[in-house]
């Protein structure tokens, strides 16, 4: 089915170009060293070029320029992100170029160097302490049950631990500016990627009673043309759990949020976590996924 759609798209491009060319121009851009290169093969070759090389190819001839803008950038964005983007004439090639250059999909946006992270604590000993160690370290520096595979990245485990000395709780917030991550207003408004949030947490086997809470907020602009307008909350989800039973100590728990069909205007995502007692938090992630066009329902869960 997908192959048939690709062939149909290429045939439409060929038909439009054929109607505006004649004579020698019929094979302009399709003949290399006197060998004819089919559209299908040429578009596949273009997908192997990096973003800067593909931009240069725009300048070779009119035929290449149209093929790359109307088809190749979207297919390249699909290959890089592992997602399938539905054809939308309102989304121009620049949006797909940015997705290729920055790859906003298929990665954890909380790990981006553009994310604004802040410890919202009244005193130093209330902050989360970050530790990183090898997954094969024995014994591990944290007295907990085996770590979930989701926490292992390049054979390393990275966690943050709240201080037991904190009376008001350790607090940390993250702000993701989606336009800085390579997304465009048209991608956000027309495709509305699914936003998947996940975080693992537990308390030590020898720890005392502890509490963990987190929330995610989707922030939009009521007037996109006014950069000074206050952001408003489009959607939000919150989770709270108290760890006070013997059978809960050292055991890992996972909290997930999923947002769909949240409407137009999304620009930022805020993620907030808070813990009192010795709570280990790891594997927090926010990822974007292209929605299935057959699904038209909204779902937020935890």
TrEMBL record:
One Pfam family this sequence matches: FBA
PANTHER family: F-BOX DOMAIN-CONTAINING PROTEIN, F-BOX ONLY PROTEIN 6-LIKE PROTEIN
SUPFAM superfamilies: F-box domain, Galactose-binding domain-like
GO CC terms in record: cytoplasm; SCF ubiquitin ligase complex
Family matches, as Gene3D superfamilies: 1.20.1280.50, Galactose-binding domain-like
Limits of the F-box domain: 31-76
Originating gene: 100115662
Single GO BP term: ERAD pathway
GO function terms (MF aspect): ubiquitin protein ligase activity
Protein name (Swiss-Prot/TrEMBL): F-box domain-containing protein
Species of the source: Nasonia vitripennis
